Amino acid sequence: MKSKLGIVIALMTLSTLLLAACNPAPTAGQATLEGTPWKLASYVDAAGDPVDILPGSEVTALFAEGRVAGSGGCNRYMGTYTASGQKLTVEVGGSTMMYCSPEELSTQETDYLAALNRAATHKIADDQLQITAEGGEVLLTYLVLEPKPLVGPTWGLTSYNNGKGALSSPLAGSDITAVFSADGNMSGSAGCNSYSAPYDVDGSKISIGPAVSTRMACAEPEGIMEQEMTFLAAVETATEYAIEGDELVLLNDEGVKAAVFAARSEASALALELLANAEYKTEWTPEGVVRLQDGEYRAPAAPGSSSEIVISMTEYVAVGQLKDLATGNTEPGAAVILTSSGGGSGTFYELHAVVTRDGGLVDAAWTQLGDRVQMNTVSIDNGEILVDMVTQGSEDPQCCPTQPLVQTYALQGDELILTSE
């Protein structure tokens, strides 16, 4: 694709595993089972065959203080382990429950966790960890995971300081994120509202805030508004940060954790590739549909015309569970922002609700968002799509919108219905 795609993935956190995230990662030649972030290179599948992990996916593990946690490539998992010498036993206790697309990603995750539960021994050589079964069969091979950069990834909240001396997990059904931009701005979803805050980094020191947010009121899940205020207050107390593998920890001036985040898996690139080559509804062709190729469709605006119809997939994509108000059913899907133009000065932004049906992707419904608007974020929350953008005010020229606008859409049959603005 011609633009770098980003993705917001809705995670339903069942519980939080806090590991030793403030210890510096071991350097080359010093890797140990415990305290070293590991990324999977290969595993034994359900048929007993060794296979490499899917391109674009990332499976991780961090062993510390008798507990293990990481990403299975789609969902985050957690469990316990015991290690004595080279002996190792692992029991995976739970995971998040996100829909994984494509199906191969879900299969890989299932096979990986099954192999991890069969661990009997381990050995480390040349910064490579191998976990073997009782009979000596190599089940899993890991490499040392280099820490994620602060700037760039979408960080999903796993726990936050509740202001009462304890860490709390986000409410089930809420999704809180943070993205640190190179221009010194931190932004994301606080669970109900979008927020932004200036931040400054000096070595491991960090200062954040004050934060500003949109002013929507959400009723569900119960307590979400209180959680939002507490989360924003917590991150503003941060004075230090540490990254180990795919985990980011913000600490206050007393050394207490203010918030803990996990980097969202890059495995979503697999789902994005499918979306970038899917068929979408449109008003620009007689057939009423176009199929994107690597995120783009181009065709002459008319026979012999030098002007082109150009339809492009933007970086604004969200994956999650979409609820159909017409049936009450919830199904895996995605919110995709496309731009389209017919050779004139206009660039029209469109919101498409794509769902998975019969093993494929279907553009269930779409709606226009406006000409030359500026997108901030798109996300899926409680089955509905939240669009945060800047549109034209009453006195703005078409080129230069200044009016912030947050809209919520719901799928209703073959239509997208505006439910709040």
What secondary-structure arrangement, pairings included, does this model have?
Layout: E1 8-9, E2 37-44, E3 50-52, E4 60-64, E5 67-71, E6 76-84, E7 87-95, H1 103-116, E8 121-125, E9 128-132, E10 138-144, E11 154-161, E12 167-168, E13 177-180, E14 185-189, E15 194-202, E16 205-208, E17 212-213, H2 224-235, E18 238-244, E19 247-252, E20 257-263, H3 268-275, E21 279-281, E22 289-291, E23 296-300, E24 308-323, E25 330-341, E26 348-357, E27 360-371, E28 374-381, E29 384-391, E30 403-412, E31 415-420
In short:
The protein has 421 residues and is mostly beta strands. The chain has helices at 103-116, 224-235, 268-275; strands spanning 8-9, 37-44, 50-52, 60-64, 67-71, 76-84, 87-95, 121-125, 128-132, 138-144, 154-161, 167-168, 177-180, 185-189, 194-202, 205-208, 212-213, 238-244, 247-252, 257-263, 279-281, 289-291, 296-300, 308-323, 330-341, 348-357, 360-371, 374-381, 384-391, 403-412, 415-420. A hairpin with a 7-residue loop joins strand 23 and strand 24 (308-323).
